[in-house]
Each structure stands twice: as structure tokens, then as C-alpha cells.
User: Which sequence fits this backbone?
């Protein structure tokens, strides 16, 4: 019998309201952050005398900070309380934060807006453990890869649309600030309305005693996960992808401008292809895995991240364009399509890599500890992303070019993948079986 597609989940109440709730959250985060960064970059004198370069690094860092500080607490709360009610409370918090942001936009008060950035970071920190713990509690095992794939696709599409919409709205004169303030508040309200349709989902650990010491609980959380080898290796592998992605994405604006001689539209094109690739790769996981949790896709994804990351370096070195171009002009340059294809395939293989990892974490951890385990993932992700920012700055300061950063990251990915697969040989064994099975099913001897 033919199994239903992962897209059939959109017709079901147990999935669709949750999907649109998390999509609105990802969209709103990025509309707000991008609009603020765009305003500070192109209209700085009307906001502050603080150096723009410092603000462009400070604001994303302040957004990430709550993930480090409060993820352990968020994981406990998500395991202790019924999930649909907890999600609705988080969405009400988002509405309150966007009201603070609206005041900041209206009064042109940078510090109110920065407070809202921290608030949205806290909102995402609280939602993260619920987001990935909701799926294994709602979906059947053979639906989990498809459900994760759709959620990952939705997250990255939300990020991309948010970045584009934030930059477009705030640049619209003379109503840009009003459009951003009203738009972000409207998105928060839509997300809350969607959350009201999420069905009741019992708390897995209602008797849990919440520990408020964020330092000791964060360490306890990670120590607990480290006792489960497959889960902990999958957590580290997942966080490595965020390191890889953070380094690559952080270089895109300057890469588009200085290496490719492009304008802002070229940067948007690179970001679009990368995000589209992750969405496509995430959705294809269900088909490639045969509706099962297939960890053999993880080495497949890792190989692609190294191959196409290295080819992005080679394509950048070979790129011969010297004249300023927009997106259309870049497409007409020799070597331009190769660079875009590399960005697309890096994203696609990233999808193959992370979707099965989330499924492993969700299904092999203690079922009473799912949200706290996901909280541990978020802590590690935040730390790896901070490490990526520091590594990128140090390498650039040491004189490496942006294409060379792509090469170093691709080679590091091969080394890290080797270490991870030695630590958990099951990944590589399943990959060999998956390749053999795929070859047999397609008639390859």
C-alpha cells in the first residue's frame, strides 16, 4: 500500500496548527532582526552614534544569548506543562515583546528595540524545546522523518522570507518603520491564533521539580544526555552543522560584495539558494529514507557538505567577474551558475544531514526527557555558533580570504565527520547499507 506523503500532515489538526505557529515565529524573528539591522546600517545617524560594525555583531549575539542562559529552564518547563497551553503562553509573550518593539520604533529608541531583540531570543529559547518535543509525541515513528523535514523546510523558508520582508518593509519610505511595527505585531497575532487550534498534549513529566539555577541545570542537562552515546553524538553532529552554516552564512554579505562584485540583490540570491536547498533536502529525506529513520543519510549529507563546500572555494577562485553586477548580471557571468549551484547543494546536503539527526535525538532519548534533551541541543548550538563567529573573525584577521574560509570549513567538516562516525560507527554502517539498498532498488549491481 502506498504511504501518504508528508504533505498530508497539513490536512490534520495534530500537525497543521503547530506548523503554522512555528513558521510565524521563525518569520517574525527574522523580519524584526533584519529590519533593525537594515535601519541601523543605512540610517544610522537617526538612531545612534555607536559604531555600526559593533551593532551588527552585538545584536545577533544578544539574540543568541538567551539560548545559552535559559535553554535548560525552557526544557524543564516544556516537559512539566501541557504543551498546547505552554505554546499559547509563549505566543502571548511574543505579542507583548512586539508591543515593546513597536514603542521602540515609534519613539526611535534603540535600547527598547535591543530589549525586544533579547526578548525575541527568549521567546525562541522557550519555544525550541517544545518545537522538537511536540513531533515525537504526536507523530507515528514512520511519520517522524517526513514531519521533521516539513518543519525544517518551514523554518528555513520562514527565515528567508523574514530576512527579505524585513529589509523591504523598513526601506519603504516614508512608512517603513510603521510597516515593520505593524507587520511584526500582526505576525505575532496570527501565530497566537494558529496556536489556539493546537490539540491538547499531556505533559510527559508533570511531577518534575523545576530547578532554577541555570548554570548547574545546563551542566546537568548536558551530562544527562552524554550518558546516551547515540543521542549525544547526534547532538554534537547537529551543533557542528550550525557551526558550519554560521560561518558560511556570515560571509555571504561581504562575499557577495567583494568577491562577486555584487549588490544587495546578489547577497539575497545566495541566501535564497542556500535556504531553498535546505528546504528541498529536508523534504527529500522522507523519500530517500523510505519513511524510516535512516541515519545512513547523515554521512551522505556530510560528504556533500565537504564536496560542495570545497567546490564553492574553487568556483570562487575561478570567478573572473570584475564589474559591479546585480542579481541578473551575476547570472550572466561565467562561473556564476556554478557558485549558485554550490550554495543550493550545500543547503540540500545540510537538509539530508540534520533531519535524521533530529529524529535520532527525538526517538532514542528518554521519553520523559525529550524537551530537556532538545534544550541541551540548543545550548550546544548556541555555543557552536558563538565559536563559529570567533573562528571566522580570527581567520579573516589572520589574512585568509572568504573563499579560503569556505575551503577550511569544508575540510574541517570532513575531519569532524570522521571523528563523529568513529565515535558512532552505526552512522557509517547504515550509510553502506543504504547505498547498497538504493543500488539494488534501482537495478545497479
Assistant:
Amino acid at each position: 500500500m502506498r504511504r501518504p506523503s508528508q504533505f498530508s500532515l497539513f490536512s490534520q489538526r495534530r500537525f497543521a496548527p503547530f506548523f503554522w505557529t512555528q513558521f510565524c515565529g521563525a518569520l517574525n524573528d527574522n523580519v524584526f532582526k533584519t529590519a533593525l539591522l537594515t535601519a541601523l546600517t543605512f540610517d544610522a545617524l537617526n538612531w545612534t552614534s555607536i559604531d555600526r560594525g559593533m551593532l551588527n555583531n552585538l545584536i545577533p549575539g544578544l539574540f543568541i544569548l538567551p539560548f545559552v542562559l535559559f535553554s535548560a529552564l525552557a526544557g524543564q518547563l516544556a516537559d512539566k506543562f501541557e504543551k498546547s497551553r505552554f505554546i499559547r503562553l509563549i505566543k502571548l509573550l511574543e505579542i507583548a515583546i512586539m508591543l515593546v518593539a513597536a514603542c521602540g520604533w515609534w519613539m526611535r529608541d534603540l535600547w527598547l528595540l535591543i530589549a525586544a531583540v533579547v526578548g525575541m531570543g527568549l521567546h525562541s529559547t522557550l519555544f525550541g524545546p517544545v518545537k522538537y518535543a511536540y513531533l515525537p509525541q504526536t507523530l507515528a515513528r514512520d511519520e517522524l522523518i517526513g514531519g521533521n523535514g516539513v518543519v525544517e523546510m518551514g523554518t528555513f523558508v520562514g527565515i528567508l522570507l523574514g530576512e527579505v520582508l524585513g529589509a523591504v518593509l523598513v526601506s519603504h519610505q516614508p512608512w517603513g518603520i510603521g510597516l515593520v511595527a505593524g507587520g511584526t505585531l500582526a505576525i505575532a497575532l496570527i501565530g497566537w491564533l494558529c496556536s489556539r487550534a493546537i490539540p491538547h498534549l499531556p505533559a510527559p513529566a508533570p511531577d518534575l521539580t523545576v530547578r532554577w539555577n541555570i548554570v548547574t541545570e545546563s551542566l546537568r542537562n548536558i551530562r544527562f544526555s552524554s550518558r546516551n552515546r547515540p543521542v549525544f553524538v547526534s547532538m554534537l553532529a547537529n551543533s557542528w552543522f550550525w557551526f558550519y552554516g554560521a560561518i558560511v552564512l556570515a560571509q555571504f554579505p561581504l562575499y557577495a560584495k567583494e568577491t562577486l562584485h555584487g549588490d544587495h540583490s546578489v547577497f539575497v540570491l545566495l541566501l535564497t539558494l542556500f535556504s531553498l536547498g535546505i528546504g528541498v533536502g529536508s523534504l527529500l529525506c522522507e523519500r530517500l529514507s523510505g519513511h524510516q529513520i535512516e541515519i545512513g543519510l547523515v554521512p551522505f549529507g556530510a560528504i556533500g557538505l565537504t564536496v560542495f563546500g570545497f567546490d564553492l572555494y574553487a568556483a570562487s577562485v575561478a570567478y573572473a567577474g570584475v564589474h559591479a553586477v546585480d542579481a541578473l548580471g551575476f547570472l550572466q557571468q561565467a562561473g556564476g551558475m556554478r557558485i549558485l549551484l554550490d550554495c543550493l547543494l550545500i543547503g540540500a546536503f545540510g537538509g539530508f544531514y540534520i533531519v535524521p539527526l533530529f529524529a535520532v535525538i527525538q526517538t532514542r532519548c528518554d521519553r520523559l526527557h525529550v524537551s530537556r534533551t532538545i534544550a541541551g541541543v540548543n545550548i550546544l548550538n548556541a555555543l557552536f555558533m558563538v565559536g563559529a563567529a570567533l573562528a571566522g573573525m580570527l581567520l579573516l584577521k589572520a589574512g585568509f580570504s572568504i573563499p579560503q574560509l569556505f575551503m577550511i570549513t569544508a575540510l574541517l567538516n570532513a575531519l569532524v565527520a570522521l571523528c563523529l562516525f568513529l565515535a558512532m560507527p552505526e552512522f557509517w554502517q547504515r550509510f553502506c547499507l543504504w547505498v547498497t539498498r538504493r543500488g539494488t532498488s534501482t537495478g545497479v549491481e
